[in-house]
Design goal:
alpha+beta; Arc Repressor Mutant, subunit A; 10 strands; three-stranded antiparallel beta sheet; 165 residues
């Protein structure tokens, strides 16, 4: 099962997204401290020693792009919960041959499990339609829907069968 963790990425927009994210020193730090250890946002900022305002913006951008994956929650005071995040990749190999760029990426174990849990626990909806199902007594049951932006890595990984659902 371990072999399913590596993926060859040839899609230009995904490669651009990865290169831009890792070219940004702050984003690279954020992705490195979450590569194998899920952390809450405050821990990420403290571990990276980055200014809060710009860190939140960069972390949110990484989440939106699917390079940081929600991985469970930590209970806090007064019944509040905060989300932990893990980096999608633990290892990247970028190959440039003439003008052709390809990326070999190794998914972090935490990210693979987190994506699988998202798929199992919720109905992931790419089309923004509300999913409904009826039970024996014809009640309409609405389910929770996670909307994942189309420019995220996650639909790409699922379509390619890299993350098995």
């Amino acid at each position: 099962m371990g072999s399913t963790r590596s993926v060859a990425i040839k899609d230009k927009s995904i490669i651009t997204l990865i290169l831009h994210s890792y070219a940004d020193e702050d984003k690279k730090k954020i992705l490195n401290v979450t590569a194998n250890k899920p952390r809450i946002i405050l821990d990420i900022i403290n571990a990276c020693k980055l200014p809060q305002t710009s860190s939140y913006r960069k972390i949110n951008s990484l989440i939106k792009n699917g390079l940081l994956i929600p991985d469970g929650q930590l209970p806090r005071k007064y019944g509040k919960k905060v989300t932990k995040y893990v980096a999608l990749f633990e290892n990247l190999e970028i190959n440039i041959i003439k003008n052709d760029i390809s990326v070999m990426a190794r998914l972090s174990e935490g990210a693979r499990h987190a994506i699988f849990r998202m798929m199992r626990d919720k109905i992931v909806d790419f089309s923004k339609k509300q999913k409904v199902s009826s039970s024996k007594n014809y009640q309409v049951i609405k389910t929770d829907v996670i909307s994942i932006p189309n420019d995220s890595m996650i639909p790409f990984l699922i379509k390619r069968g890299i993350v098995k659902v």
